[in-house]
């Protein structure tokens, strides 16, 4: 039997605010539901939606814990009634709707993936959120396939660096944007075919030059606002535009006849509110298509920096400063 305490450390702000509200408090260790597992958390990825939640701008979905955090790695220490007990002791990483910034967290068993020897627990914690997001949006909604050229904004973010890695694995030509020459160089070093400094270059003109005027098959956008009509100019005929965040604005004015004339598709999604059944299907697909590359050591997340749980404020400050390249991770298990 694994000894499980009744109380745990957690970051569960009582009110929205700045990074200083991320203080360690005591909370009861959660109990897994029938199809869930309890994980002793080793590490937790830090994501922009958690910064928004801390500020009071992105409440957790109904039923999700108020404790911050959407992705974890760790060891299964208990299981619900409908989960086989043989998996207790197994190292896993998981996408969850909340609760990651804590010593223990509950995850639906269907949303867990095994941690192979090729990954450290810190690397494993940095995988689920970006992998689920990029796979479902770039490859499933955007139908990116071998030989396509794609444009991804935020090339040095967790999403951007994962998109670069997957593009290299699955035969895509990837163009990214970033906010400095240093970040562009970092993106190219990670495998981006082209990197555009959006502060000093017109990304629409650069994409047209790179593609010989043809444009991209897919644009993966996390900016929104006035980027949307500019992104449309980057698309080839029959191109797909996939929105995954709206950091630059909630609304956009677009030329509708251009969509009709060039047969463009505008779509998008948010992953966090999707139900367990959908996320389980995604996890199953990733286990078949992507996880063999992970197990073989061909796919790893880019780790920017790690912080202990007590330094969660500093982790959020780094996320908000925008200087990171890759993923920021909290190390929970001491």
Question: What does it look like?
Answer:
The chain is of the alpha/beta class and 334 residues long. 30% of the residues lie in helices and 26% in strands. The chain contains eleven helices and 15 strands. It has helices spanning 48-54, 121-125, 128-141, 158-169, 181-189, 203-210, 227-234, 256-262, 276-289, 291-295, 312-321; strands at 7-11, 24-28, 36-46, 71-79, 91-95, 104-108, 112-114, 149-152, 173-178, 194-197, 216-221, 235-243, 265-268, 303-308, 327-331. Strands 3, 4, 5, 6, 7, 14 and 15 form a seven-stranded mixed beta sheet that branches. Helix 8 (256-262) links the parallel strand 12 (235-243) and strand 13. The model has no long low-confidence stretch (mean pLDDT 97).
How many strands in all? 15
What kind of assembly state do the chains in view correspond to?
single chain
What average pLDDT do the residues reach? Answer: 97
Give the overall form.
globular
Helix content, binned percent: 25-40%
Distance between the termini: 21 Å
Strand content: 25-35%
Secondary-structure element series: EEEHEEEEHHEHEHEHEHEHEHHEHE
Report low-confidence residues grouped into runs of 5 or more: none
The helix/strand class is alpha/beta
Task: Describe this protein with a few key phrases.
alpha/beta; six-stranded parallel beta sheet; single chain; seven-stranded mixed beta sheet; globular; 11 helices; 334 residues
Give a short synopsis of this structure.
With 334 residues, the protein is α/β, with parallel strands linked by helices.
């Amino acid at each position: 039997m694994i000894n499980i305490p009744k109380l745990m450390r957690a970051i569960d702000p009582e009110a929205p605010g700045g990074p200083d509200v991320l203080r360690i408090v005591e909370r009861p260790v959660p109990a897994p539901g029938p199809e869930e597992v309890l994980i002793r958390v080793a590490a937790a990825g830090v994501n922009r939606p958690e910064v928004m939640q801390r500020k009071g701008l992105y409440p957790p979905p109904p039923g999700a814990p108020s404790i911050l955090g959407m992705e974890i790695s760790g060891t299964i220490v208990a299981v619900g009634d409908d989960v086989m007990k043989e998996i207790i002791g197994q190292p896993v990483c998981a996408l969850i709707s909340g609760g990651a910034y804590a010593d223990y967290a509950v995850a639906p068993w269907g949303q867990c993936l095994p941690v192979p020897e090729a990954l450290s627990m810190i690397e494993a914690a940095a995988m689920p959120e970006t992998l689920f997001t990029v796979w479902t949006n770039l490859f499933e909604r955007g139908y990116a396939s071998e030989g396509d050229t794609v444009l991804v904004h935020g090339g040095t973010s967790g999403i951007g660096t994962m998109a670069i890695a997957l593009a290299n694995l699955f035969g895509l030509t990837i163009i990214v944007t970033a906010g400095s020459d240093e970040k562009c160089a970092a993106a190219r070093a990670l495998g981006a075919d082209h990197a555009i400094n959006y502060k000093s270059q017109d990304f629409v003109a650069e994409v047209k030059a790179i593609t010989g005027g043809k444009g991209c098959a897919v644009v993966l956008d996390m900016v929104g606002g006035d980027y949307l009509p500019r992104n449309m100019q980057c698309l080839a005929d029959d191109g797909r535009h996939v929105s995954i965040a709206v950091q630059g604005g909630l609304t956009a004015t677009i030329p509708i006849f251009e969509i009709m004339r060039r047969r463009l598709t505008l779509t998008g999604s948010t992953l966090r509110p999707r139900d367990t059944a959908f996320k389980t299907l995604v996890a199953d697909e990733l286990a078949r298509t992507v996880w063999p590359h992970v197990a073989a050591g061909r796919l790893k997340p880019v780790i920017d920096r790690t912080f202990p749980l007590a330094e969660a404020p500093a982790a959020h400050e780094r996320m908000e400063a925008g200087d990171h390249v890759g993923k920021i991770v909290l190390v929970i298990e001491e």
